[in-house]
Records
---
Amino acid sequence: MPEILEPKAARVIRLVDQRTANLAEIARARMAATPIAANGLLADALGRPLHDLRISVTDRCNFRCNYCMPKEVFDKNYAYLPHSALLSFEEITRIAKLFAAHGVRKIRLTGGEPLLRKNIEFLIEKLARLRTVDGLALDLTLTTNGSLLQRKAQALKSAGLQRVTVSLDGLDDAVFRQMNDVDFPVHDVLEGIEAARMAGLGLDANGRLTGLKVNMVVKRGTNEQEILPMARHFKGTGITLRFIEYMDVGATNGWRMNEVLASREVVKLIHTELPLLALQPSTPGETAQRWGYADAHGNLDPNAGEVGMISSVTQAFCGDCNRARLSTEGKLYLCLFASQGHDLRTLMRDGASDADIESAIGHIWRVRDDRYSELRSLGSPDTGGGAKRVEMSYIGG
Ligand code: SAM
Ligand code: SF4
Ligand code: SF4
């Protein structure tokens, strides 16, 4: 496919169609186009900045959550990436530094299960040394299923991890064991969360616990009866519980709309027993709508903590989406629902300079116009053209 170069006067250089881009095209375009030096002010085609980078450090997991890595697909014959395909810690750090120069302020390590990556704390040490364009430390966090957290929480904190999000889909052991599909008990995840709290993960500069979060994916017909017990359990603990609508990510989970329980239903349900009050977003581009608990007088109870609703299906938030995703093998994805990524690993391993990679990132981000969830809610047929979407375990949640 030919490169699409816009007239210079427009000062926007459309390099390639991002859904069909490959390294050769990017590299060719990079040579042809004006280099883009990072100045921290990068914006995409819809004016969205680049603030958040999610890095998948492994495509493997010790769980088989049926909404993410169903056992029937991710079985013993599944072809995971060989170690040589994975970005090394040095490569990840190099790319992360260039993203920080472009304005990234927050890095989330994810996967697969990120704590399965050997010596992950060495990577965290390296990332913790990076600085934003304003000279501040990056907001460094990680999403985990919690299974190895009890063992690793202290080492992660000592390495410089600031916060952690733990996924837990219910408190009923039978329900949770069925959902993770490897018979993993709730108790061990709760112990992991406690270990994270004891290690000081999630404490802000004022010593308040604001960054320890629990994510619960809600699947209608599977675990909606766990919503209230989860809300009761975490209310007043300082741990923020977030409910995520079951999403149509990847191509293997057999997603059906009638298994989605809309966040507004979750709010309604909690509100019947634990009255909620809407809170303002704390940062632009925040994925979750925030709710606080009311006290007996209907005022916000500051000691009760908050819950978040991530309404990816019923209330798309693409308009503020400032997130890029780096896959386990170094492909840059511009949307969770993308089917193709931009191969930064080959660029790096072919000997590109930092300036070249920085420029490539700049060009890729500038033409980004992804807004899958918005298009889906508008009923648009232009939501991927039937292309096979990448799996969440590979691209990172
Ligand atoms: N293994 C780690 C974990 O489970 O926390 C990190 C990777 S996981 C892909 C990241 C997040 O994506 C988790 O909170 C998980 O519950 C969520 N997730 C995975 N598949 C999902 C789906 N189909 N819909 C909504 N959330 C999903
Ligand atoms: Fe593993 Fe996380 Fe996916 Fe569950 S959601 S299968 S824990 S990567
Ligand atoms: Fe961002 Fe894509 Fe999700 Fe929209 S659908 S919020 S663009 S990741």
Note: Residues 1-20 have pLDDT under 50 and may be disordered.
---
Amino acid sequence: MPTKQVVRPRIRGYICVSAHPDGCAAHVREQIECAKASPQLRDGPKSVLIIGASTGYGLASRIALAYGAHAATLGVFFEKPPENGRPASAGWYNSAAFEEQARKDGIWVKSLNGDAFGDAMKEQAIQVIKKEMPKIDLVVYSLASPRRTDPKTGLSHRSVLKPIGQTFTSKTLDTDRNRIEEITLEAATENDIADTVKVMGGEDWELWMEALDAAGVLAHGCQSVAYSYLGPQVTWPVYKNGTIGRAKQDLTRAANAIDALLKLRRGRAFVSVNKAVVTQSSSAIPVVPLYIALLFRAMKSRSIHEGCIQQVCRLFSTQVYNDNFLDFDDEGYVRMDNWELREDVQKEVFDLWPRITTENMNELTDYVGYQKEFLKLFGFGLPDIDYEAPTELDAPIAGL
Ligand code: NAD
């Protein structure tokens, strides 16, 4: 099979099953430029483990810390390499591009590709840290996955996005057909809730931290952050009060347990509630894409719009480092969604919500911006890329 091909977007439902290597590299370069433009972190970390490091918030965290603090980063992710003439997944190309650039810039990087939920990956990461890295002073937990095999029981669990207690009917944006529709989601069963907590709750984060602690690879003062989302009332039935919200509550339980563990070495663990952005995970949640299209319009018109990289740069520079204190809310969360939830922003979204139809959605929402962001996740629509030219599908990542 020739490894050079013209790569076009192949969208199936809410996912794009192809990815453009040069476009993904350009997207990573954009994020690197953004991180470099932010002031350097004064007391930033030296050695960072990022679990879920290839796309979305995890990739942005990796870039922000590598370029904001010159941190060595070990990135764990689950991505598809190129094979049999098919392009790799976007996260693979992102990681290949990030590693290549970071090495050129003299920044230490290493990546591990495989199932982070398993014991084998935890052991592999520990061995890399022991042999090649200073002790870890920050662990970023940014996994988003539809399934998890419990390493203790061997049982597989699937997360679902369902309301709890009653069915929920709402307006939604079908991003495949570009149409506003009504969607009815059936209420979750007890099993659905338990499975979603197993996959997206805090158990695996705890297992990681316990394993790292037991192996003696955490530095004095080590911190750990996991990302969460709460959002506005229109999405609560499917998010905050739904199965995924239960899983996020469990993340908070885990944060407290990990915090107690890390305090023994003067460290801490916390949950950062981030703003809604277009990622492979958020585009799969019913109702959320319509909300994001409205939100982007409201935030862009006020010049307070942020993507993943701007959010995490603000998190690290104004909360975690530079002699700042974590500004916890009453429930113990760091709130990076404070601009999203501003009253004027939410009022605009809330006022427009009932008026949106298929006919007026391009005028009343930033669906055009949403679609551009979505395609960009897979390396499409970036400037200065010749999308008509065959491109090299192979993109090696050292050691993988
Ligand atoms: P994403 O889909 O962009 O990234 C998920 C990452 O997890 C990827 O690196 C992927 O390779 C990795 N991954 C998935 N399964 C894996 C496995 N079994 N083993 C190893 N790696 C695996 O997701 P995202 O939207 O950036 O979400 C990351 C976190 O941020 C989640 O906790 C999410 O709830 C939270 N968050 C997201 C948003 C949003 O709007 N997207 C908002 C606030 C908080």
Note: Residues 4-392 form a domain with the Rossmann fold fold (CATH 3.40.50.720).
---
Amino acid sequence: MMTEITVRELKTDHFIQNKVEEIKAAVGEGMAINALSGGVDSSTVTMLGHRALGNQLKTVFIDNGLMREGEPEQVVGFFRDLGVAVEIVDAEQDFFSALKGITDPEEKREAITQTFYRNVFGRIVKESGAKHLLQGTILTDVDETVAGIKRQHNVFEQLGIDPEEAFGYQIIEPLIQLRKDGVRVIGKALGLPSELFARIPFPGPALSARVIGEATPDRIETVRKATAIVERLLKDTGAFQYMGILHEDRVTGIRDGKRDFGQQIEVRCWESVDARTARPTALPYETLEKIAGDIIREVPGIVSVTYNIATKPPSTIEAV
Ligand code: XMP
């Protein structure tokens, strides 16, 4: 059983020092690798890993084609400013071919997991000669996976999967005793700018977790546009997380005086501390109207915009 370190118990300097020692001891003289997505967890692990390993850590940003608008360049830019070189790996084709024809949520997650760890990472790890993968799994990921709620893409050992046997490398998870709030404290202490440590969470399966049904390049582009609008209009709310979700059902609409059997976007905005439970933000009606107006104007094919008012549980934060 993993013992939780709550944000109240967390001794920041002591935690960082301990983890730096642990990472050094595990990696020894070899090379390690980590994938940075720019989320709070992977950004914090990148800083921790670089403090422990310096040039023995190679950091890559895997462009899976499922990221938000401008995200790869933006994240790499932030880290360049922090003195950390990040290599962008173009893996769009790998992910879209793996996702082709898949509509079931758990199958979608499994396709992403396999593509990420086996194909793309397998390739990078082999090329670099690294024996270790450093990653930012947190306790909430483990809990939800073990409870069978959602298979988080980065959880293995707790499911009885040995990554060394399955993929040929070991996985080091320095944040696994923390929740999101604790990770933010560590990230800040390691020098991340607030744009990164206070960033809203974004799931490993990226925008494919926000497309109900098949995640095709077109459907991802639709949800990407909607997400950009939702993030632009809700960034000052202080909410825990907000997003657009593309539904699979179509509804009848009218455009230019003609019937348009169009698509629907669901907007979600959550209040939460640790993502285990959450409730929808009571957004002002004018804000909702503005979001709906902008989405309908700027996102082709959308004729309906709804706002989720159910709590987690029984809802979950992401839709897939
Ligand atoms: P859920 O949707 O399970 O999300 O309420 C809890 C928090 O974890 C973030 N997150 C993920 N969610 N699959 C997910 O469904 C993942 O692989 C994943 N990684 C992170 C999610 O955005 C929310 O903050």
Note: The chain has a mean pLDDT of 94.
